[in-house]
Design brief:
Two copies of one chain form a homodimer.
Chain A (H helix, E strand, L loop, with lengths): L6 H5 L4 H11 L4 E2 L12 H11 L3 H8 L8 H22 L20 E4 L2 H12 L5 E6 L3 H9 L3 E8 L2 E2 L1 H13 L6 E7 L12 H18 L4 E5 L21 H4 E6 L11 E4 L4 H13 L4 H13 L1 H27 L14 E5 L11 H8 L2 E2 L1 E2 L16 E5 L5 H14 L3
Parallel strand pairs in A: 1-11, 3-4, 3-6, 6-7, 7-8
Antiparallel strand pairs in A: 2-9, 4-5, 8-9, 10-13, 12-13
Chain lengths: 434, 434
């Protein structure tokens, strides 16, 4: 008997992460520098308890939290989120200053309307909704090389083709973006391109940030190629790690660049900066994407659970969110330093890496003669020494235009304890050939 | 410039409910007997407060509630859910007795393994995941005539064709099911059929329940046609209202029928019986559907927010859920009686309706010469008199094999107060031609 599964069902592959997680089961003493978990000890247990207690202390606030809401999301949460994003962008603009990124580009007094927001069950859901709303099988999405590997799973399940755009330590390689667009134009494939997916802040997996100037230039470039595509070419800006900044300046969002409001699909989240068990993300979207994504969300679940939305609303309104975030930023700054100190102490000098300024990851590149992939001697040796990382290989899309680099690793300082971070890095170093 | 929207994006229509909800905005004094909201006054505000306070009173339980979990869902919640379902089925079997539905059919000591469960963001998400996992554009799903209108939106967005199977007061019309299957076989279309979608308990919109004998017979019939389809023909049993029973006996799930474990996709939920703002649903699924739906869920959101899952886990484990449910059943029994008393007092005798035994709805049928659709004189008169119902028309799939009936209405006693229920029914009666 044949399968009843749909094309999408048949294409949907086991997630890379499940294979990594199955490894941890067989190795109870394993130190995982692979998981993208956030820091357990700093989860806002007391804050959440107090906020929920307030919400549920009276029927007037308790009942709405336990009842259905609207698909687009709690109006006050959308309002507070829009205001927060407006403030972040205004502040980032002041920090970066007028000359470096062409401040004139910033729309004066950009005020986001809450009507442009859609609240989602984590920003992951938004990535899924946007892919559904925009992409048919065979369509092309441009992704960073390397990129967030879970997104590659979404793209694959939808039968999309990915084209990688090189990522440099200061963000997207614009010359390569132009080259890729030009190649697609010549091949008559531009009408299949839907968007450029950019994890713009402290990127997963590299920790790199794309500057505002580069985002503005990427938007301009996409705009130039629209006439060949025959339809809008969006910039999907995934800002999941934006608020986990612990060094350097914030960068304005691509929404603030010329043409941003019409062409940027901004994906933000409160899950990582507040609590990953409280899955609340959001999108800022132009029409017709907003209406379409909201309708699809209605079919998914008619709206994110109200209890979660009310908790975040109150956290934002009361200042508890901002206080918690400041604490979290100090904590990740510390954990990042623990990791980089250990790397400096143990790794040989021919391993390349950079000091992260935010996020949860350090990206390390060993000499090319060495492999880091799942079947490599190094990965297996590390596993025998009870330490796990994400092989860089998993973070590259299937792109016929290049071979996947296989000498990198993503090291997370999010979930592991300080002690495990130090010990894990030392074990990894011992697994490297001396 | 052309649209960038995908085929799915272009097909996804505004939900019927949004049009109804927009009507309520323009009529502040409107009594809505249309919304499928649950009763506000009986939401478990105090219980949720106490349970969350316990969970968050210590890092040992608080941290896991605020951290990521697994995609399939919290293991203890899956265990408690599997046990609950096993108990419900065993109890229903005893209630119904051996003769009426062929008890021998029930697998003795059916124990559900928690490994067959997937926890979702409400059971709505499960319906979406299953449609994605199983259906390609052009595929056919069999639905009840009438059926849950939000599901029709999911089907339409996926480009599916729906075939309606008549619904009788004791459930699915089996002779019509056979006729439809036979027609599809003759037309060479059976290989496009994926499943029969059945809202088996206190159906939305009719309130009708399909007996166990009928479910078992439907499964058998589907099995017989599998040889023509060339692949499994599933029975998607949507049991969303099962626990909102306030009269009569429970009915065993289709899982308990011969072949049930291999061919039933069971969709359950805790949202309606506990709190709709705490969106936690679940599926009991055979392979390969379970693995595929779980992977797709991983791409949607990597798992339902842990805070919601931990809340339900504790509600189930502590007995708070069972206590709340008993209270809720009394409450809905009362509200249903308020509505049927009003109907008896005000509606003319040529309006047909039935006493509900559970769920949130009364389905009323006016004489055929009268129309109840959105553009009908009756609907508009009712609106002028500030009362809203769901026109029956919206609950019928587009099916070329018949005209949509247009003389029915769904009346909900879930969200409205007792006073509004009585007054709303009186207003509706006055809108009927005397």
């Amino acid at each position: 008997m044949k399968t009843t599964l749909s094309q999408l069902g048949q294409r949907t592959a086991p997630p890379a992460i499940s294979w990594l997680m199955s490894l941890t089961l067989g190795h109870p003493k394993l130190i995982s520098l692979a998981a993208g978990f956030t820091d357990n000890a700093s989860l806002p247990v007391d804050e959440a308890r107090a906020l929920l207690d307030e919400i549920l202390s009276a029927p007037r606030t308790g009942q709405p939290a336990l009842q259905y809401g609207s698909t687009a999301g709690e109006p006050l949460l959308r309002e507070l989120t829009a205001k927060r994003l407006t403030d972040l962008d205004a502040q980032a603009d002041r920090q970066v200053g007028p000359t470096k990124h062409g401040r004139a580009a910033l729309p004066r007094g950009l005020h986001l309307s809450p009507d442009r927001l859609l609240i989602t069950h984590g920003s992951q859901q938004l990535l899924y909704l946007l892919t559904e709303a925009l992409c048919d099988p065979g369509d092309i999405v441009l992704v960073e090389d390397p990129t967030y590997f879970v997104y590659l799973g979404i793209a694959q399940s939808h039968g999309l083709r990915c084209r990688g755009v090189r990522l440099l330590p200061d963000g997207l390689d614009l010359a390569h973006l132009e080259q890729v667009l030009e190649e697609l134009r010549r091949a008559g494939e531009l009408q299949r391109v839907k968007f450029l997916y950019l994890v713009s802040y402290y990127q997963n997996p590299t920790g790199y940030t794309t500057s505002f100037a580069k985002k503005a230039a990427a938007l301009k470039l996409l705009r130039r190629y629209e006439k060949f595509a025959g339809h809008p070419l969006y910039l999907l800006e995934d800002a999941a790690y934006r608020e986990l900044r612990f060094a350097g300046d914030d960068v304005p969002s691509a929404l603030a660049a010329p043409g941003g409001p019409e062409r940027v699909l901004y994906a933000g989240t409160f899950s990582k900066p507040f609590a990953t068990g409280v899955r609340v993300g959001f999108g800022v979207l132009p029409e017709p994407v907003l209406t379409t994504a909201t309708r699809i969300k209605g079919n998914h679940d008619f709206g994110t659970a109200n209890l979660l939305q009310q908790l975040l609303t109150r956290a934002l309104a009361s200042g508890a969110y901002a206080r918690h975030l400041a604490e979290l930023q100090r904590r990740y700054a510390h954990k990042a330093r623990v990791m980089t100190d250990a790397i400096r102490a143990h790794f040989p000098p021919d391993v390349e890496w950079r000091e992260p300024q935010g996020g949860l990851y350090v990206w390390a590149r060993v000499p090319k003669r060495l492999r880091t992939g799942p079947k490599s001697h190094f990965f297996q040796t590390a596993l025998k020494r009870n330490v796990l990382y994400v092989p860089g290989l998993l973070c590259y899309a299937d792109d016929p235009a290049r071979r996947k680099p296989d000498h990198e690793m993503r090291l997370s300082f999010g979930g592991a304890s300080e002690r495990d971070i130090t010990e894990g890095i030392a074990r990894l170093a011992r697994a490297l050939p001396q």
